[in-house]
Amino acid sequence: MSSTTHHNFKVSAADWNKTSSNYAANISKAPMSIPIFHLISLLDTHLPFSSATTILDVGCGPGNGTAAIISTFHDTLPPGSQILSTDFSEGMVDIVARTRRAKLEELSEESKEREIWEKVQPLVMDATDLSPLPDASVSHIIANFVFFMTESPEKALTEALRVLQPQGICACSSWARCQWMELLDLAAQRSFPGFGKPVHEMPVIAPQWTNAEGIATLLDNAGFRDVQTEYVEAPIVAQDPEGFAKFFLGSGNPAVTWITDVLSEEEIREVEKAFEEMIREVCERNEEGGYVLAGTAVLAAGKVLH
Ligand SMILES: C[S@@+](CC[C@H](N)C(=O)[O-])C[C@H]1O[C@@H](n2cnc3c(N)ncnc32)[C@H](O)[C@@H]1O
């Protein structure tokens, strides 16, 4: 079974399988999907989708990148193009396959969108080993919140570079800041001593993946050229901090299992409470009264020139 490292933290395909439905229904909408439209716009600016051959969605999760490309560019994608939606979690790939089947049923036979969905291939594949794909066979790669959490981000970048054709483009993202993780960490620090358990270390993203300069250097070292970066605000707005804390701690997402895997149900309720308190204490509120948990994504795109 392949697994990925969050710095000093393991996230396996099995972990992502467990949370795939919850992720698809909740977390993947916001904040995870906010940077997707920026990523696909970066891709299109560097190499218009009108000249796409094969588009590769790496670590596609429930397929939001794939869906965004189709909904935005179905009229410009050439008839011969295809989309490979790949993830190392079978649970995620199954969700993409179900979405594809649903789209084929709901969209009219003549629609261009349906034509493109027909050519989507959901595939189980590890980002660090794209060996099923030949060299220079892909025009566009989108990797939204994936590379930094693989066992070897360097290998993932080298593989992306290998499969891209000359002038091919790769756009990826990572987190510069996640206030929900900061607050969860504080909630854990508050709660764990009372349980008589040592406070676990929160998984952290390797520093180079948390800022534009770091990611640009990583892409450049891997052999990408014309590297461009940007920051995008991608907050979570919690209308009901109690409900949000309960949902988040119960999500099975690898962002919370470092806490929930080592606690009893009762202890988890206490962390939930502390997390809710932290949100109420620290977060700013928007005009609708929602608590804004700040999130900043860092995006990068790089080209293959050879
Ligand atoms: C934060 S989610 C992002 C999902 C999707 N890109 C989106 O924007 O919603 C990370 C995804 O990367 C996948 N993943 C993590 N490590 C991977 C690896 N080594 N190879 C392929 N997929 C991986 C996980 O299974 C999960 O679906």
From TrEMBL:
A GO molecular-function annotation: S-adenosylmethionine-dependent methyltransferase activity
The organism's place on the tree of life at top rank: Eukaryota
Protein name per its UniProtKB record: S-adenosyl-L-methionine-dependent methyltransferase
Matches recorded under Gene3D superfamilies: Vaccinia Virus protein VP39 (3.40.50.150)
Species of origin: Aureobasidium namibiae CBS 147.97
Domain Methyltransferase type: from-to ranges: 56-172
InterPro entries named in the record: Methyltransf_11 (IPR013216), SAM-dependent_MTases_sf (IPR029063)
Pfam families with a match to the protein in the record: Methyltransf_11 (PF08241)
Key words, A-Z: Methyltransferase, Transferase
PANTHER family, per the entry: 2-METHOXY-6-POLYPRENYL-1,4-BENZOQUINOL METHYLASE, MITOCHONDRIAL (PTHR43591:SF24), METHYLTRANSFERASE (PTHR43591)
Biological process according to GO: methylation
